[in-house]
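To: structure subgroup
Subject: Chain for Friday's discussion

All,

I'm putting the inputs and outputs inline so they're searchable in the archive.
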Amino acid sequence: MSTRAKPSSQDGRLAEMFGAPVAELYERAAVTPGAAALTRALELRGFLALAEEQVARVRDRVHEAMAPGRDMGGLSAGDLRFDAQWLAAALDARDGYLTALGELLRTMPAQSDERSSRPVEFAQPQITTTLPPTAVPASPRAGAAPGPRP
């Protein structure tokens, strides 16, 4: 199954930030190759969806092994220890993707910002200082090294 079809905990936030459901965002990213923020957000969303699926799988496996009606003879400390390590790794990955996605969404410019479609204009510096009226311009040879005398 593609990560596009997997749900993630941040799908609502992405839809809110970009103004469309996640499925439409994938279509938009496919036809607008210059949308770097959207592309990165969707990549992180895909990684997050996979990490969250791993967390859910391990959680469900541990719950099944620990179910009240389950035979205690089938419990394995080694298996549970392995699941705990896998769960820790999956949670670390999920936390990392959540942090990265949150940082990307926090720092990207607003989508509705009208200034983003206009080129940047730089203010040109202007000299506004004037010389006092008593100042006399220096002669063209002022400060020049003396030449040889004839």
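Points worth raising on Friday:
The two ends are 95 Å apart (CA to CA).
Helices lie at 11-18, 22-31, 36-65, 77-107.

D.
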